[in-house]
Amino acid sequence: MRTVLITGASGGIGAAAARAFSRAGWRVVLHYCSNQAAAEALAQELPDAVPFRADLRDREQVRALAEAFPETDVLINNAAMDLFALFDLVTEEQARELYEINLLAPLTLSRLLLKGMLSRGKGCILNVSSVFGETGGSCEVDYSVSKAALIGFTRALAKEVGPAGVRVNCVCPGVIRTPMNDRLTAEEAEDLADSIPLERFGTPEEVASALLFLASEEASYITGAVLDVNGGISI
User: Fold this and answer.
1) pTM over 0.70
2) Which of 178, 225, 184 has the alpha carbon at shortest distance from 206?
3) Are 31 and 77 in contact (CB under 8 A)?
4) What DSSP designation does 70 have?
């Protein structure tokens, strides 16, 4: 049975991806940090699902996560934190926490799990970026930087490990109905939806479908790709 490790699997896109991969017959490792109840409930719901707690700000806990599942076939770097504030008002501590979770943890986890993938001559790393990683977002500068870096990481690593049979791809969600967007008022949400060509927010399940496709044999000739799942939005 193939194994997929999903960071930030306790809610939103991560949980939708866990359900999609489980339905497709995968063993799913559900990484979480603080939302233990949600992760354990999801593990009870899905056959062959294993919850695992790790604080991605802690390098040793990231290492422990990788060492617990060295046979991982697909790694989905999904966990992220948002930071909505004027750039000059963001503290050094806030910025460091964001980069540890959004960028440095994915790099470390990928580096550690890549060893097994290279030795087996197959594997897949999927990075969840954001439309802001492509366009930038006002009052979300550090978030945008971290997500843009994941795109660069995807393209560079794909070139390096492609000859060894390992694929690296990226998904860039647009405005998705997740708790990250709960700060929007009803009026703001309506105005934002009107600016999207498909005139609605996306769902976590739609992003999960893209991730499942990129992990599948149907996508065996796709690497270094950045797939927009954004309803046609251009912010």
Assistant:
1) yes
2) 178
3) no
4) T
The letter for the amino acid at 131 is: V
| Beta bridge pairs of residue 228 | 172
pLDDT, one tens digit per residue, over 108-123 is 999 999 999 999 999 9
Which stretches of 54-203 are DSSP H helices?
59-68, 92-99, 105-120, 131-135, 141-161, 186-194
C-alpha–C-alpha distance, residues 194 and 142, integer Å: 26
> CA nearest 4: which of 176, 211, 163?
211
Q: Give, rounded to a whole angstrom, the gap between the first and last alpha carbons of the chain.
A: 41
**Catalytic residue IDs:** 143
For residue 109, give Cα distances in angstroms to 7, 45, 97.
10, 26, 16
Give residue-wise pLDDT tens across range 31-49. 999 999 999 999 999 999 9
**Is 70 exceeded by the pLDDT of residue 235?**
no
